[in-house]
């Protein structure tokens, strides 16, 4: 067994050892090729790096990256206390309450309760990454408030003892019209990470869209499902080196995923200032793509780190490239105008296997002051209603209540996605927390349907809501464009 004092001597770029789960690794030769940059490792050289390493690397990463001779053996645990470690960048700071101080799970009654608890237990780094949004947070805030301006129209004298929330999305039955949207780095919230979310989704009968920047490998996440038939989508960020994306798609195609979600709302990362203030972005990489900040360990935020290598050059022609490299249905994520929705519904796109679109502004993390997805939903209904007949339309962003989900369904959405809420449920509670989040939303959807006098989600429509308060806020085509259209028709 190796004395921790001996490990502490190896704390330079010429001889760098770290302790992870009581095993000593010589990572000297790995410094130059670490996607997060050498500084990320050197900041923990000669120390126990388990707390920093664990949330952002899938099991087996070092074993796959190092030679057997570089796995030096177990550390003597009795000697670790003799070495004073640098405070972990991912462990909770002293002012944070310990995990055992969180409320009982049954006392979490809504999404805001989970958010407050997550802020209490997550590390500053994790909270900054999960909660941050672009610039002045206007779009993030607007996402969460837009649904409040839509009023429900309850009906009476309806026998609503039984309501049916079941629906079909992308040819797959689900228990209720909610899915977990792609959200990266779930192991910052809980060791089970995305695999824990997969289990929760399976037990509650909904689907998960796995992030391209997940903290576990796709194989590990899919192993968390409750059955091989459990549906799951895979989110793709196309890399500058297309060969990396093509290799990833080959893996995805054989793992049991049921669709590929091509993300388009963030060709470049937004300016997430809360995230950037945590000056340790460089020590994080995606378990799926292996991408991270190349030699820029001194800052930039986790969001910017995970965008390293992502191409900003996608065009409509790239859907043809995607079709060549996957047999799965294609869903386009991040549409924010009726024009792009209409483009996605063109015959050419349908023939390439585009089956759906997700209206999303990246959770307010891309272009600040971009419209809330529900506004885009109304805009499509106004200017391009044919889209709903050709594609399944999903909404991702701002869903805080079951009433929000029902309002989106009334406007034509097939299902709604939640991202942060699933991560916040995972924080402190693990799989059961995510299940509780999903259960709350299902029960709120059922209650709303009963109060509207609706028996199934397929019955929901415009007659159940009043959107007049939003009419003046929905995009209006320029007058010259409208005149041109009228002349063309004449």
Automatic annotation (TrEMBL):
Cofactor(s), by name: heme b; FMN
**Annotated EC:** 1.1.2.3
Q: Identify the residues that the record assigns to the Cytochrome b5 heme-binding domain, covering every copy.
A: 1-76
Write out the biased-composition intervals (Basic and acidic residues): 270-279
The alphabetized UniProt keywords are: Flavoprotein, FMN, Heme, Iron, Metal-binding, Mitochondrion, Oxidoreductase, Transit peptide, Transport
Checking Gene3D superfamilies in the record gives:
Aldolase class I, Cytochrome b5-like heme/steroid binding domain
Q: Which InterPro entries match?
A: Aldolase_TIM, Cyt_B5-like_heme/steroid-bd, Cyt_B5-like_heme/steroid_sf, Cyt_B5_heme-BS, FMN-dep_DH, FMN_HAD, L-MDH/L-LDH_FMN-bd
What are its GO cellular component terms? mitochondrial intermembrane space
According to its UniProt record, which reaction does this protein catalyse?
A: (S)-lactate + 2 Fe(III)-[cytochrome c] = 2 Fe(II)-[cytochrome c] + pyruvate + 2 H(+)
UniProt lists compositionally biased (Low complexity) regions at: 84-94
Asked whether the keyword Amino-acid biosynthesis is assigned, the reply is no
Give the chief site where it resides.
mitochondrion
Q: Which residues form the signal peptide?
A: none
All copies of the FMN hydroxy acid dehydrogenase domain together span 103-470
Q: Name one GO molecular function term.
A: heme binding
Q: Where in the cell is it found?
A: Mitochondrion intermembrane space
Oligomeric state and interaction partners are given as: Homotetramer.
Concerning PANTHER family, the annotation shows:
CYTOCHROME B2, PUTATIVE (AFU_ORTHOLOGUE AFUA_1G07200)-RELATED, S -2-HYDROXY-ACID OXIDASE-RELATED
Q: Which family does it belong to?
A: In the N-terminal section; belongs to the cytochrome b5 family.
What name appears for this protein in its UniProt entry?
L-lactate dehydrogenase (cytochrome)
Q: Which organism is it from?
A: Choiromyces venosus 120613-1
Q: What is the lineage of its organism?
A: Eukaryota, Fungi, Dikarya, Ascomycota, Pezizomycotina
């Amino acid at each position: 067994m190796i004395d921790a004092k001996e490990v502490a001597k190896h704390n330079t770029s010429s001889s760098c050892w770290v302790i992870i789960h009581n095993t000593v690794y010589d990572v000297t030769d790995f410094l130059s090729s670490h996607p997060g940059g050498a500084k990320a490792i050197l900041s923990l050289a000669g120390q126990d790096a388990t707390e920093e390493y664990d949330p952002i690397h899938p099991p087996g990463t070092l074993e796959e990256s190092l030679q057997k001779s570089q796995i030096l053996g177990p550390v003597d645990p009795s000697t670790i206390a003799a070495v004073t470690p640098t405070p972990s960048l991912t462990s909770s700071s002293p002012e944070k309450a310990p995990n055992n101080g969180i409320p009982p799970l049954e006392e979490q009654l809504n999404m805001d309760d989970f958010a407050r608890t997550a802020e209490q237990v997550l590390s500053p780094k994790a909270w900054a990454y999960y909660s941050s949004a672009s610039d002045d947070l206007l779009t993030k805030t607007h996402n969460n408030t837009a649904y409040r301006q839509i009023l429900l129209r309850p009906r009476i004298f309806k026998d609503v003892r039984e309501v049916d929330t079941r629906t079909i999305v992308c040819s797959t039955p689900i228990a209720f019209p909610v899915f977990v949207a792609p959200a990266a780095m779930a192991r910052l919230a809980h060791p089970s990470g995305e695999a824990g979310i997969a289990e929760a989704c399976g037990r509650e009968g909904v689907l998960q869209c796995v992030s391209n920047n997940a903290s576990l490998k796709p194989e590990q996440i899919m192993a968390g499902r409750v059955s091989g038939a459990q549906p799951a989508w895979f989110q793709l960020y196309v890399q500058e080196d297309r060969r990396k994306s093509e290799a990833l798609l080959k893996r995805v195609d054989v793992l049991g995923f049921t669709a590929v979600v091509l993300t388009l709302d963030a060709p470049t990362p937004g300016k997430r200032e809360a995230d950037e203030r945590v000056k340790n972005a460089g020590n994080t990489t995606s378990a799926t793509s292996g991408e991270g900040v190349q030699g820029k360990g001194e800052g930039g935020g986790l969001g910017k780190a995970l965008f390293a290598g992502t191409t900003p050059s996608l065009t409509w022609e790239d859907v043809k490239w995607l079709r060549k490299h996957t047999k799965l249905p294609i869903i386009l994520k991040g549409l924010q105008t009726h024009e792009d929705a209409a483009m996605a519904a063109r015959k050419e796109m349908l023939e390439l296997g585009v089956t759906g679109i997700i209206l999303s502004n990246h959770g307010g993390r891309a272009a600040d002051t971009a419209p809330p997805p529900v506004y885009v939903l109304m805009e499509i209904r106004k200017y391009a209603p044919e889209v709903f007949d050709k594609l399944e339309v999903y909404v991702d962003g701002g869903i805080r209540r079951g009433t929000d989900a029902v309002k989106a369904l009334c406007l034509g959405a097939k299902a709604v996605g939640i991202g942060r809420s699933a991560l916040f449920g995972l924080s402190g509670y693990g799989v059961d927390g995510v299940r509780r989040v999903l259960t709350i939303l299902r029960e709120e959807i059922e209650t709303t349907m009963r109060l509207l006098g609706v028996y199934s989600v397929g019955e929901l429509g415009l007659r159940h809501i009043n959107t007049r308060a939003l009419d003046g806020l929905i995009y209006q085509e320029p007058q010259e464009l409208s005149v041109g259209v009228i002349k063309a028709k004449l």
